[in-house]
């Protein structure tokens, strides 16, 4: 593993002032950590992006949008275009989060249009996929993941690891009521995801795409998850929203991935 991907989506929680103080503190607390080994990112509310860009050192922290419209501009009231995201300092577009799919009705086809548009505009598309509890129960998890990948990435030319990241976030694992996936279960699903990406994009490109796990990641399970062969990063909600707590989690992950002698 060359570097780990660690980031958070602050959902509809932190506003403008909270985001600014959060990213300032996170940058300060993690400034000493080597960025060639750590891709750190924060995905705040749209309204806080520009201010976050001004308060965070871009060399320490990347920013993203929690959603994106599928056109450069147009009659899409309430949507944010890739150009607008870039203008506010975002370099990542988080697409197809389970809350958008299952609470707000987003389909694979909508997500696909967004992925194509994000990549075309030079953003990193962070595609989120994951099965529901019912699908897991019925033994359909791998089929669901394959379907979400094949539909969500339809007609995307083989991407580089900068153009596409995939986050596996089982719906049943996310949020207050969520139960984190075991590291073994997550690893199995990540294997399926990797296999599908290789099928879609070939050995070389398919193997380059970073795979992140998300869903009730916490300081207790983060280290076990990141040590799994096919888990390249963690996408975290609640456990990352306090900067000192997140910084501790980041340090413990880096410590196991890159034991001290290699960090010097
Ligand atoms: P939690 O870590 O709070 O379960 O949220 C995960 C998530 O939705 C990240 O996008």
TrEMBL record:
Pathway: Carbohydrate degradation; glycolysis; D-glyceraldehyde 3-phosphate from glycerone phosphate: step 1/1; Carbohydrate biosynthesis; gluconeogenesis. Its EC number is 5.3.1.1. Its main location: cytoplasm. One of its GO terms (molecular function) is triose-phosphate isomerase activity. The keyword Cytoplasm applies. Homodimer. Belongs to the triosephosphate isomerase family. This is Triosephosphate isomerase.
């Amino acid at each position: 593993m060359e570097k780990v991907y660690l980031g958070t989506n602050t959902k509809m929680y932190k506003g403008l002032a909270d985001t600014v103080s959060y990213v300032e503190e996170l940058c300060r607390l993690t400034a000493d950590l080597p960025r060639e080994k750590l891709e750190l990112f924060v995905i705040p509310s749209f309204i806080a992006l520009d201010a976050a860009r001004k308060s965070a050192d871009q060399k320490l922290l990347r920013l993203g949008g929690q959603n994106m419209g599928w056109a450069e501009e147009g009659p899409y009231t309430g949507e944010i275009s890739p150009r607008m995201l870039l203008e506010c300092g975002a370099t990542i577009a988080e697409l197809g989060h389970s809350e958008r799919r299952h609470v707000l009705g987003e389909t694979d086809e909508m997500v696909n249009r967004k992925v194509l548009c994000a990549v075309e505009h030079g953003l990193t598309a962070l595609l989120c996929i994951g099965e529901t509890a019912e699908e897991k129960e019925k033994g359909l998890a791998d089929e669901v993941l394959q379907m979400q990948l094949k539909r969500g990435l339809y007609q995307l030319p083989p991407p580089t690891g900068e153009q596409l990241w995939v986050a596996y976030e089982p719906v049943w694992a996310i949020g207050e009521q969520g139960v984190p996936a075991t590291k073994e279960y997550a690893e199995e699903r990540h294997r399926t995801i990797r296999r599908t990406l290789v099928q879609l994009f070939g050995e070389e490109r398919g193997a380059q795409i970073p795979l992140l796990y998300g869903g009730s990641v916490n300081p207790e399970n983060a280290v076990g998850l990141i040590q799994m062969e096919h888990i390249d990063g963690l996408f975290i909600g609640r456990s990352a929203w306090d900067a000192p707590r997140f910084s501790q989690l980041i340090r413990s992950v880096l410590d196991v991935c890159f034991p001290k002698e290699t960090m010097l």
